[in-house]
Design brief:
The chain folds into 4 domains: 99 residues, PAS domain (Beta-Lactamase); 111 residues, Beta-Lactamase (2-Layer Sandwich); 151 residues, 2-Layer Sandwich (Alpha-Beta Plaits), CATH 3.30.70; 166 residues, Hypothetical protein af1432 (Orthogonal Bundle). It has a 5-stranded antiparallel beta sheet with strand order 2-1-5-4-3, with helices on both faces. α12 runs antiparallel to α20. The longest helix is centred in the N-terminal third of the chain and has 40 residues. The chain is an alpha+beta fold.
Length: 611
């Protein structure tokens, strides 16, 4: 009975054990099913190991290593793992402690290596332990990370070497970052700025309100602002253009604000210069005609009446340009502007109307007051000379007294009046200019008044012997006195030099006939002797200057003066030579007959000297 009971108990125990095994097997199969499902939807490679042998694996695991599924099942995992340490971890795996490695190398079928992350988890099913490894290709991620790292380094280099000012502040204006260029510009170091507030350490109290406004604008959509800020650096004003951009977090809250500042001081100066040049005359600095016309349109209102217009034309500008060069002519114009500016009022507007013309707008000014201004300018001009020539401006005045009158007609009337005045003043002015030039010549060269008087006397005698008409005799008299007028434009150091001139100095001296010609051409009173002045240093044999004329190609009056001038220079002392006696000079003149001088004129000169 007892034996029977024991048999029954043993049979029951066997059934219970069998049930347990069935349940474990079912649980294992369920786990495998879940594993298989999981492996189909993941990019990770998964493999189940038993004692380092691959029992199961998903397709991704095989693909990552370059194999087909049937090629890896039943293979020792150590075949694919390069690291001995990883092999030991798999061999000694503990199901209680998972292993996670961010990067290992696994050998692929083609001999290359797969960079992958590695996870090892041990699973206990009944009395058996299985290892599950999970691998993931990290080569792309690593490439992206390397690129990000490279970009960060490149960004750092760009920022650190950027000439623009770069800062990063929190929403309250506290510094989080400043570029080296920012520190250098404000003469601050990083320690002085990081953690401090922008408005406390950088912003000038005078600029605080405008900067604060731009800063607050940046906190509202579109989270961007642009502004200009004036700062004083080393006692010099600088203009910085700031562009601020707020950076939002994933909740659309402002994380920080990045500012980029550019020093636009020189750009602003250039803009101001362009603006200045667009409304001002480059040479004299007064307004130009375009600005004058704009202002005239603005001031042409009843409130500004009576509105007077003054037109002025600078006399003798062409003469100075021809005699002394355009540089000296420019100096004359600048001097005229000085005089005009010294006489006009603060609200009056002066502009360069043309080459040698100026225009003045006189708001709320009667015609009588405008004429008094003209008289004041004229008087001041007489007291000042430029290149020993009196400064003279011919003026015309016109006044608009009621709104029905046309302002353009008033300008035309002022111009007409100016030209009439210029014509009436021309004769006396030119006489004054010629006298001034003659005095200048006597002051700065060896051409003394006595020298001119002697030449005039002898040349006139020769002219009479040649039975020249009265008109030609008169030309000869003026020509004798002004033949060297071109020397007024020759530097003093050359004219008064003791000893011989060098090649360069001689070349400058030889320009005086052409300069003299230009002076005479510019004056109707002297135009009739211009050609004689030009050729008075030509030689009979064609070796003279400036054009190398020969024989009778040279005007008769020029040939006469050439002989008379040479004789007078020989017989009177100069700083660079001693005088010859009368006989020696005549002998020298005789020797040069047919080379330097017209033989006929030499013959007359010798006959006169014997008397």
């Amino acid at each position: 009975m007892e034996i029977t009971i024991n048999k029954i108990n043993k049979a029951n125990d066997s059934r219970v054990e069998l049930e347990k095994i069935k349940k474990l097997k079912k649980k294992y199969l369920d786990t495998l099913k879940k594993y298989i499902i999981a492996t189909r939807i993941t990019e990770e490679g998964i493999a189940i190991l038993k004692k380092e042998i691959i029992l199961e694996a998903n397709k991704q695991f095989a693909n990552l290593l370059g194999y087909k599924m049937k090629e890896i099942l039943g293979i020792n995992i150590g075949k694919y793992i390069e690291s001995k340490m990883v092999k030991r971890l798999i061999k000694n795996a503990n199901f209680e402690i998972p292993v996670i490695l961010p990067k290992i190398l696994m050998l692929k079928k083609d001999g290359s290596f797969l960079k992958c992350s590695f996870k090892l988890v041990s699973i206990k099913l009944g009395n058996k332990i299985y290892n599950c490894i999970v691998i993931k290709d990290i080569s792309k991620e690593e490439k992206i990370q390397n690129q990000l790292k490279h970009n960060q380094e490149k960004y750092k280099i760009i920022v650190e070497n950027q000439t623009d000012l770069i800062d990063e502040v929190d929403p309250y204006g506290n510094f989080l970052f400043v570029s080296p260029s920012y520190c250098k510009f404000y003469n601050k170091n990083e320690e002085e700025l990081i953690g401090r507030n922008l408005f406390d350490v950088i912003i000038n109290p005078k600029s605080r309100a405008s900067v604060k406004k731009s800063f607050e604008e940046c906190k509202k959509p579109p989270y961007f602002s642009c502004s200009e800020q004036e700062v004083m650096i080393n006692n010099e004003k600088r203009v910085i253009q700031w562009i601020n951009k707020a950076v939002l977090d994933n909740k659309n809250k402002i994380n920080y604000i990045i500012g980029v500042g550019r020093n636009i001081t020189e750009i602003k100066k250039s803009e101001e210069k362009i603006k200045y040049l667009s409304f001002h005359d480059k040479l004299t600095g007064v307004y130009n005609r375009a600005f004058f016309e704009e202002e005239l349109a603005r001031l042409d209102t009843e409130r500004q009446l009576p509105l007077s217009i003054v037109m002025g034309d600078v006399n003798s500008l062409k003469l100075i340009n021809d005699a002394f060069g355009h540089e000296r002519g420019d100096e004359l114009l600048k001097k005229c502007v000085e005089i005009l500016n010294s006489c006009i009022r603060k609200d009056d507007i002066i502009a360069r109307w043309g080459g040698d013309e100026f225009a003045i707008i006189l708001p709320r000014t009667t015609n009588q007051t405008a004429k008094k201004l003209v008289d004041r300018i004229t008087k001041k001009g007489r007291e000042i000379k430029k290149s020993n020539i009196p400064i003279s401006i011919s003026f015309g005045v016109s006044t608009k007294t009621n709104s029905s009158q046309n302002i353009k007609e008033k300008i035309n009337k002022a111009e007409d009046s100016m030209y009439k005045r210029k014509l009436s003043e021309r004769k006396s002015l030119r006489s004054s200019i010629i006298s001034s030039l003659e005095r200048t010549l006597f002051e700065k060269s060896h051409e003394t008044e006595e020298h001119c008087n002697r030449i005039e006397k002898v040349a006139t005698k020769i002219g009479e012997i040649l039975k020249l008409p009265v008109g030609k005799i008169n030309d000869l008299i003026i020509f004798s006195r002004l033949h060297d007028i071109g020397k007024v434009a020759i530097p003093d150091y050359i004219l008064t030099k003791k000893g011989k001139l060098d090649e360069k100095e001689w070349a400058i001296i030889k320009k005086h006939p052409e300069i003299g010609y230009n002076i005479c051409e510019a004056s109707p009173q002297l135009i009739h002797i211009a050609e004689y002045v030009l050729y008075h240093h030509e030689r009979w044999d064609g070796k003279g200057y400036p054009q190398g004329l020969r024989g009778t190609q040279i005007p008769l009056l020029s040939r006469i003066l050439s002989v008379v001038d040479a004789f007078d220079v020989m017989t009177h002392s100069r700083s660079y030579k001693k005088p010859l006696c009368r006989i020696e000079a005549l002998e020298e003149i005789s020797k040069c007959s047919g080379t330097f001088f017209d033989p006929k004129i030499v013959e007359i000169m010798l006959s006169i000297s014997k008397i």
